Amino acid sequence: MQDTVSFGYEDVSPEEKRTRVGGVFSNVASSYDVMNDAMSAGMHRLWKDRFVRRVKPREGDMILDMAGGTGDIAFRLQAKGAMVTVADINPEMLAVGMERAMKREIGGLTWSEQNAEVLSFDDRSFDAYTIAFGIRNVTYIDKALSEAHRVLKRGGRFYCLEFSTTLWPGFAEIYDAYSHKLVPQIGKLVAGDEDSYRYLIESIRRFPDMPTFERMVADAGFVQTKVEPLLGGLVAIHSGWKI
Prior knowledge:
Elements: E1 5-7, E2 10-12, H1 14-28, H2 32-40, H3 44-55, E3 62-66, H4 72-78, E4 83-88, H5 91-104, E5 110-113, E6 126-132, H6 141-151, E7 152-163, H7 171-191, H8 194-206, H9 210-219, E8 223-230, E9 235-241
């Protein structure tokens, strides 16, 4: 195991990262929509819609939505008839999701507190595994990918939506300035939490680039891996199949 892992631009022990990441998401749980709007200039809703279209949920599909506590992806999947288990390591995030589901009168979801690196589910339990804007916060990404592969049935689909690095000249510099300078200030003004928003931006910069992460997905055992860049790679949809 690594002696240190990244927490934003810092290198910390795995135990410290788990504790500090947990604190970040406990802090931002109640302002989740504000956080996503700040980090994506409101475009996260369109990206999530596109992500779910790529998943192609079918009536009766058993889908594990990991790091999905607030329900954004799960609600979209459930609307297509999928049987969704919403899993998250953070109980505050799950609480927000359950409250949102109640207000919207969305039923039929299973809510489960889970560590992506050590899932409690049996082998070959799910038809699809989704994770949106969550995998970069996992301490050991390779473990989470291995667990995703384990709990999928043969023929199961893996889909990951995550920030990456845009390759569009000019736009990269604009977004870099926006994210590093403005997003933490928005967090401070709107949610009273500058540090958590700064970490979330820094964690994007430390996440593997698209080719590297695609190789990690393949190394976990997935085949026919693909990457679909959005906005030149600012965000990417990664996918693969278990055979």
